[in-house]
């Protein structure tokens, strides 16, 4: 079923805050994704996207970001938990596109300073992804007490996260390949 | 007109990137952008439909609105 075209799986760093620990997590996920055969990736930093904050939807689209979302087969979304919710800029950036996401896989990497590892931001983000047409997977990565997981240079201090990331990517790429087939070959309304 | 008849429009779409016939892979209920689109909303369809297509060759995604005349009031 696999096509010759590599899967494209961007990693979205979902916070613009200074001192963000999620940057380490996003770079790690980007590096692990890049190791996969037949997969291309890029790190998308919401802080660097020239998207206006006083408009929304088509009029606020950044052409490069939209093209990346159009090309994407799956997304890795790295989201810190802020007061049990997702970063406002992440939601704003995601909302600038729609058809580009439909029937594509999404996996969430939760990040928090506490022991829940972004569990609540993941739960709050899933309904948003659903409305955008993304298909969320049942594996997450949870960086609990993130301030203890990386050193100042971003080196991972706890390698037990690597097999977790491996399982997360296994599922995400399976879903990405399967949904690519569906998007390309299964017409809506043609079944049942 | 039955919903299924207009939800799957007859016209196909060709990929603007590579010229390959695209697959109609989804119908998404979206917010209306114009008064005409808003007028087409019903109690059951609280929005308007956007047809989403994918290119089986290069993967490009395109979409277009469908606002059935029969549903306007």
How far from one another are the termini of chain A? Answer: 22 Å
Q: Name the structural class of chain B.
A: alpha+beta
The arrangement of helices and strands of chain A along the chain is EEHEEHEHEHEEH
Percent range of helical residues of chain B: 10-25%
Largest sheet of chain B, in brief, is: 3 strands, antiparallel
CATH superfamily of chain A: Flavodoxin domain
Strand content of chain A: 15-25%
pLDDT averaged residue by residue of chain B: 82
**Structural class by sheet pairing and helices of chain A:** alpha/beta
Q: Report helical residue fraction of chain A.
A: 25-40%
CATH topology of chain A: Rossmann fold
Number of strands of chain B: 3
Describe this entry's structure for a reader.
The complex is a heterodimer of chains A (about 190) and B (about 70). Chain A is an alpha/beta fold and about 190 residues long. Chain A contains 5 helices and 8 strands; from the N terminus they run ββαββαβαβαββα. Chain A has a single domain (about 5-185), classed as 3-Layer(aba) Sandwich (Rossmann fold). Helices cover about 35% and strands about 15% of the residues of chain A. The two termini of chain A are about 20 Å apart. Chain B is α+β, with helices and mostly antiparallel strands and about 70 residues long. In chain B, about 15% of the residues lie in helices and about 30% in strands. Chain B contains 2 helices and 3 strands, in the order H-E-H-E-E. Chain B has helices spanning about 5, 35-40, and strands at about 25-30, 50-55, 60-65. Chain B has a 3-stranded antiparallel β-sheet, with no helix packed on it. The longest helix of chain B is centred in the first third of the chain and has 5 residues, at about 5. Chain B starts with a helix and ends in a 7-residue tail after the last strand. The chains are: A alpha/beta (about 190), B alpha+beta (about 70). Chains A and B meet through helix 5 of A and strand 1, strand 2 and strand 3 of B.
């Amino acid at each position: 079923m696999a096509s010759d075209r590599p899967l494209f799986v961007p990693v979205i760093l979902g916070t613009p805050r200074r001192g963000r620990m999620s940057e380490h997590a996003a770079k790690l996920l980007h590096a692990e994704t890049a190791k996969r055969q037949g997969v291309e990736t890029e790190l998308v930093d919401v802080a660097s996207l020239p998207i206006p904050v006083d408009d929304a939807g088509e009029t606020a689209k950044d052409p490069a970001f939209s093209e990346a979302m159009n090309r994407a087969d799956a997304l890795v979304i790295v989201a810190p938990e802020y007061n049990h919710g997702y970063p406002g800029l992440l939601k704003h950036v995601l909302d600038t596109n729609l058809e580009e996401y439909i029937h594509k896989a999404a996996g969430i990497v939760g990040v928090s300073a506490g022991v829940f590892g972004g569990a609540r931001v993941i739960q709050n983000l899933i309904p948003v992804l659903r409305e955008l047409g993304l298909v969320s997977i049942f594996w997450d990565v949870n960086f609990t007490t993130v301030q203890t997981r990386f050193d100042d240079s971003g080196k991972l201090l706890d390698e037990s996260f690597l097999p977790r990331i491996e399982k997360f990517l296994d599922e995400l790429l399976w879903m990405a390949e399967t949904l690519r087939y569906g998007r390309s070959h299964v017409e809506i309304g043609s079944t049942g | 007109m039955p919903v299924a008849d207009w939800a799957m429009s007859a016209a196909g779409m060709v990929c603007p990137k590579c010229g390959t016939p695209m697959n109609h892979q989804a119908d998404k209920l979206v917010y209306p952008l114009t008064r005409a689109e808003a007028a087409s909303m019903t109690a059951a369809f609280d929005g308007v439909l956007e047809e989403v297509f994918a290119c089986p060759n290069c993967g490009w995604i395109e979409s277009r609105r469908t606002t059935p005349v029969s549903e306007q009031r």
